[in-house]
Each structure stands twice: as structure tokens, then as C-alpha cells.
Specification:
Elements: H1 7-21, H2 47-59, E1 72-76, E2 93-97, H3 98-105, H4 118-133
Antiparallel strand pairs: 1-2
Length: about 140
């Protein structure tokens, strides 16, 4: 029988445990979902959204969480349906691989939740990763 966990999964779980222990954890935002679900909010897809997302993927060609370079997607920290005015804002985007986009960016549920502090979570993960490798914050990676 194969081990159901990959090393990356174990590292992700351990980092999340550290985050929880440090009182810095995923803040899933569910209360902002309109009654009737996100389908009740009509946001016309603007071709510029795809363009800005593509620019984000090109500017940051690695997953912000796991570091892979394939299957990358730009994640709107505040979703287009929740904050249409931020749809084209590069500061509202972070790049993830497909798996991390679902698991971390949307707390495992594309339709109903998102993680408002995901950028801080990724930054903390980087600090933990550097410390584990013996690199201080004053040194270059």
C-alpha cells in the first residue's frame, strides 16, 4: 500500500500547525457571501481580468506556497464577486498552483469561501521555511 501523503503534503500540514500555534491562521471569510450564493451576484467577466491574471503569473512564475512552477493560477485574494472594484488590482492577486489555489486560497471550497489573509500566511510559511533551512532573514535565500 502506498503512503497517502506526499512530502509536500506533510510540510503543508506542519506549517499550518505552526501557524495555528502562533495564533496566525487562515481567516476564511464566509459571512460576506450574499444570500442566494455567489451565483446571485452578476459580475460580467471583463477580458482585462484575464489579462491582469496572466501578467501576475508571468511576474511571479512560482506558487506562493509550495514553489512549483506548473499549473499556475492567479488567485484574487478578495474574489471578484465579493469585491468587483478590486478585480483588476494587482495587489489583490497572488499566484498559486492549482492545488494550493483550491486548498489555501479558498479553504477547500471554491464556491463559498476565501482566505482574506492568505498573503500573510504565505509570508509566514516563507519565514518558517527559511528558519528550517538555517537561513536568517538578513541573508539572501
Amino acid at each position: 500500500m502506498k503512503n497517502p501523503f506526499r512530502l509536500g503534503d506533510l510540510v503543508a500540514v506542519l506549517c499550518l500547525c505552526v501557524l495555528a500555534a502562533s495564533s496566525i491562521y487562515l481567516q476564511a471569510a464566509r459571512s460576506t457571501i450574499p444570500e442566494g450564493g455567489i451565483e446571485s451576484v452578476r459580475v460580467e467577466r471583463d477580458w482585462r481580468i484575464g489579462k491582469v491574471c496572466e501578467q501576475a503569473r508571468l511576474a511571479s512564475p512560482v506558487c506562493a506556497w509550495c514553489g512549483v512552477t506548473n499549473d499556475l493560477e492567479a488567485h484574487h485574494i478578495e474574489p471578484v464577486w465579493a469585491a468587483p472594484g478590486k478585480a483588476l488590482d494587482r495587489d489583490n492577486l497572488i499566484v498559486f498552483c492549482r492545488r494550493c489555489h483550491f486548498v489555501l486560497g479558498h479553504a477547500g471550497n471554491f464556491g463559498e469561501s476565501y482566505v482574506i489573509n492568505i498573503r500573510e500566511v504565505c509570508e509566514l510559511r516563507e519565514i518558517v521555511h527559511r528558519k528550517h533551512k538555517g537561513v536568517t532573514l538578513d541573508e539572501e535565500p
